Amino acid sequence: MSGFDDLERQLRGAVRGRAAQAPTDRRGWWTGRALALAAALVVPAGSVAVAAGMLGSDDRARTQDLFSSAVTEAQGMPACEEGPQPPARYSDAAPQPETLDAFGFLRRPARPGDTVPQRWRENPDSAPLGGVILADYVRRLEAPDGSVFTVVVLRGPAALGRRAADPRSCLAAQAQALDRAAATEPAQVREAAADLMARHQAQWRARLRGDQLLVLHATGSSTGSGGGKPASEASEGGVSSVTYAGPREGPLSFAGVVPDGVAQVVVETDEDEYAGDVVDNTFAFEVPGTADDFFRATVTWRDASGAIIRESPG
After folding, report:
1. CA distances, 219 to each of 30, 142, 192 (Å)
2. Is 112 exposed, middle or buried (0-12, 13-18, 19+ CB in 10 A)?
3. Most trustworthy range by pLDDT among 41-55, 110-124, 227-241
4. Do 274 and 314 form a contact (C-beta atoms < 8 A)?
5. Which residues pair with 310 in a beta bridge?
6. Which among 223, 204, 224, 201 is positioned nearest to 212, based on CA atoms?
7. Per-residue pLDDT tens digits for 204-244
8. Are strands 132-134 and 89-91 parallel, antiparallel or unpaired?
9. How far apart are the first and last CA of the chain?
10. Which residues contact 153 (CB under 8 A, 6 or more apart)?
């Protein structure tokens, strides 16, 4: 088994430390009941084999808590202070071939509506991101439940996530904070947390080069939720978000974009199985229960024949 997605894993820390309020991005991107941290805490798309395949659910949760706490602690250090974000710029360049190969919607011609929000063009400072937007490859996708995704391909070191004042020292501070926090933990938890940190740091470095995929999801008139990651990670683990669809007791809205070949996304809990079909690389469906319940579930991707092609803890 491997991990499934940035935002699902961010929720482990968000639910425990921030359940009382919905985080808000400094540019107002995150609103409503979204629990995901607004890209300030970027968690790797896949967990290590030890964490996913050998640890019990309590140890997996503890591993995530240690990781989240270490990154949060480091964010308060000078090296991790947020640096200035350059305004978004636009380019007519094409995505890298491997990005096009992974997502069919990027290979089709643009349609009416396949554009960034007009306010971003009129005022680049209003965009919740920096870097270079590949203007000809913005796509508006309608999910099976009628909700709408806007997918933006970006390039450059400021495209997604925190722009640390001193990235190299910030990464070192994160690792040191984890070492301190995990010092008294069982060996298997320390190892899993260290591997999770290594993947997180590799992903952060990957943001300095290559394509990045930003996925915004809106239901009705809500601003909605979203997430982003390097396209190389998205082609393996997709990009998804988990938000409360109603009261804190649930249900949850589970939605995202997956690579070609996935026909159905399934959440398996102790009590039942909940599935959403994939249309145009998108899925969106409700799952009963709380976020903690979700993280004890198993998420699988299935192809058109029903065969499992990816399986991970929630």
Report:
1. 13, 10, 36
2. exposed
3. 227-241
4. no
5. 301
6. 204
7. 776 667 888 888 887 654 445 677 888 888 998 898 888 87
8. parallel
9. 11
10. 95, 99, 106, 133, 134, 137, 138, 211, 212, 213, 214, 231
Contact present, 313 and 286 (Cβ < 8 Å): no
Phi/psi for 252 (5° steps) reads -105, 150
- Residues 171 and 201 sit within 8 Å (Cβ to Cβ): yes
How far is it, in rounded angstroms, from Cα 139 to Cα 136?
Answer: 9
Compute the distance between CA of residue 15 and CA of residue 96 in angstroms, rounded to an integer.
Answer: 36
Q: Could you give the count of Cα atoms lying within 13 Å of 235 in the half-sphere of its Cβ?
A: 19
Contact 256, 141 (CB under 8 A): no
pTM above 0.85, yes or no: no
CA 206 to chain centre: 15
Whether residue 68 contacts residue 42, with contact meaning beta carbons closer than 8 Å, is answered with: no
Distance CA 26, CA 67 (A): 23
Is the model more confident about 37 or about 50? 50
- Taking the C-alpha atoms of residue 47 and residue 53, their distance in angstroms, rounded to an integer, is 9
Q: What is the DSSP string of 113-141?
A: T-S--HHHHH-GGGSS--SEEEGGG-EEE
The tokens of 111 are what? 């349609």
Q: Which long-range contacts (CB under 8 A, 24 or more apart) does 305-311 make?
A: 306/264, 309/261, 309/262, 310/2, 310/4, 310/237, 310/262, 311/1
CA atoms within 13 A on the CB side of 29: 25
Residue 100 region by backbone torsions, left for phi larger than 0, else alpha for psi between -120 and 50, else beta: alpha
Q: Are 117 and 218 in contact (CB under 8 A)?
A: no
Burial of 222 (C-beta count, 10 Å sphere; 0-12/13-18/19+): middle
CA 220 from centroid of its chain's CA atoms: 21
